[in-house]
Structure formats: structure tokens, C-alpha cells
């Protein structure tokens, strides 16, 4: 039986290890022609060699690097049908000490890299006949977590980008979704080391491979019509993440500081 991605050309960023490698392996097994991107060129070459894919070591955090990556896919396979914006940097820092250059680099890779690859790919998809699937990668940290300001903000930006692009592309056959994965990788190890005694082993027993079917589904035609969704994979649970929305509203009799304080002492007090 042909795989669900037979005939499709798919680019996966940061696919030299971890979750990206798992997405690349399943995409190839499902029949896709894959570009394995990773700034770690040896890692990209090793995964690409193992699955018969094309290796690419562009830095996706630059406009030209992202453009070269999408061009390499079009040159090798004649088109680009799918993009998984998986490459990411994970940095932990206390705001009292955080290095501003490091903050910038996290946003450059996680948010701008996703935007740059997405813009190049969306334009190519629209130009080649109008169909395609972009899968971004966000994280539960977008809702707030200590020591994760740069990383969480970058992933919150990716979530907003996903909802905005889905709105932009409504009415076309280019779909934009995201996944919020959970797996035991070197990134998860770094977080556990940081947490020390407070670590809860939340990634333990969650292999990267179990996150791949949701990504391959979103890339495939089985997901036709699905756009603007953020899909959370956590162990054996599959769920949808909602855009932020108003949780509770009160009407004030007058706009004074005292009236706002009264609202916080009343109905708004219960909100986390
Ligand atoms: N592991 C988890 O539980 C988890 C949870 C939520 C989100 N994520 C996200 O999933 C993605 C993959 O995470 P992982 O755990 O496999 O991490 P990882 O560190 O194991 O792999 C990330 C890969 O991205 C590559 N990369 C980094 N910067 C790049 C750049 N500028 N250009 C090209 N490649 C680059 C790295 O070389 C590395 O191979 C990341 O976006 C991460 O934020 C992971």
C-alpha cells in the first residue's frame, strides 16, 4: 500500500536528532521525499543517509538560510508540499541574569526561523498550484513557566503565527497547524537537569516516535480542511490547544481604581 505521504516533498527543520528525526523517519516511511535540515550538518547527513533523504545544513534563523532550504527541496524534488518547522533552541534563565543576546537568539531561531521558512514555503506552495501543509511546533511553556521567558515567548509567538497564517490562507488549500509535543530528548534532559530535585520526569517514557503520527497526519491529505489547530501530544493523550480568550468578564458601574479593585476582590479573584 502506498504511504499517506506518497508523492509529497516534505522539509523538516532541526531533523538531525530528537523529535525532528522521528518526524523525518515516519514521513519517509509513509512515502514522502524528505529534506532533513539541521544546522548540525553531521547529524543531518546521518539521518538523511539512513532514510534516503536529502541533507541540508542551512541555518533557518536567517531569511537567506530559510530560502536556500526551500529552494533545495524544490530543486531536488520539483516542489514543496510540506514543511515541519521543528528546529528549536531551548534556554533556561532567571530574568535577573538573562543574557539579552541569548534572549534574541532564542527568538531568532524559534520564532523568526519558523516565520522565515513558513513565508518561503507558503509562497512556493501557492505558486506551484496552491496546496500544501505547514506544521509549526509550539510548547506548553507558552502559557507561562519559570525560567522559560525567552523560550515560552518564542513558542507563544509560534502559536499566534499559526492562527494568523491559517486566517490569511483560509479559502486556499495551504493549511497551517502546529503541534505541542512531549518527548524524552536532549532538550527534555536539559530541563530535568535544571529542575533537579523538583523534576517530575514528565517526559520519561514518552519517545519522540509517538509524537510523529500527529505530524504526519497534519501533513497528509487525511487532514484536508484542518487548519489553524494546535494539537497537543502528551503520552497517550491527544488534545487541542485553544487560542487565549476572555475567561471571565464583569461590568463596572464606573471606571475608577476603586471599582477595578472591587472587581479583583470579587469575580476576578478566582482566576489563576
Ligand atoms: N522535547 C520536548 O518534550 C518538547 C516539548 C515541546 C516542544 N518541543 C519542541 O520540539 C522541537 C524539537 O525539540 P527536541 O526536543 O527534539 O530538541 P533537540 O535539541 O533534540 O533538537 C533540536 C534540533 O534543532 C537543530 N537546530 C537548532 N537551531 C537550528 C537552526 N538555526 N537551523 C537548523 N537547525 C537548528 C539542532 O541542531 C537540533 O538538532 C523544538 O522546536 C522544541 O522546542 C520539544
TrEMBL record:
Record keyword Translocase present: no
Family: Belongs to the short-chain dehydrogenases/reductases (SDR) family.
Alphabetized InterPro entries for the sequence: NAD(P)-bd_dom_sf, SDR_fam
Pfam (any one): adh_short
Ranges in a coiled coil: none
Domain of life: Bacteria
One MF term in the entry's GO annotations: oxidoreductase activity
Protein name (database record): SDR family oxidoreductase
Keywords: Oxidoreductase, Transferase
EC numbers on record: 1.-.-.-
UniProt keyword annotation of Translocase present: no
EC class of the enzyme, as a word: oxidoreductase
